[in-house]
Amino acid sequence: VNDLLPYLRENKTELIASLREGKYKPAPVKRVEIPKPNGGVRKLGIPTVVDRMVQQVVAQILTPIFERVFSDNSFGFRPHRGAHDAIAKVV
User: Fold this and answer.
1) Would the CA dihedral through 10, 13, 16, 19 be positive or negative?
2) pLDDT digit string (tens) for 28-41?
3) HSE on the CB side for 20, CA within 13 Å?
4) Are 43 and 33 in contact (CB under 8 A)?
5) Taking Cα atoms as reference points, which of 79, 22, 15 lies closest to residue 53?
6) What is the CA radius of gyration of the chain?
């Protein structure tokens, strides 16, 4: 994370060009297994910091566009909405 700003200063032009041209390829996700109390494992994928930043940029641009067309009864994976809000609406 600390190296992101220097990386972007050095590679900004190439990164933006690859995004605009549709040639951006995210790096492979690091796979980590987290032990569960019952003995199993939960698999977790960790993207690179640059890939996570790109994901966040896309989300910040697309969320306001699509938020307007979602049903008022939709609560999954939406800002400021969750399971408790869905239950309250049903009640």
Assistant:
1) negative
2) 999 999 999 999 99
3) 6
4) yes
5) 15
6) 18
Tell me: the pLDDT tens digits for 43-87? 999 999 999 999 999 999 999 999 889 888 888 888 889 899 999
DSSP-derived 3-state class of residue 46: strand
Q: DSSP for 6-54? A: HHHHHHHHHHHHHHHTT---PPPPEEEEEE-TTS-EEEEEE--HHHHHH
Which tens digits make up the pLDDT trace of 4-36?
Answer: 999 999 999 999 999 999 999 999 999 999 999
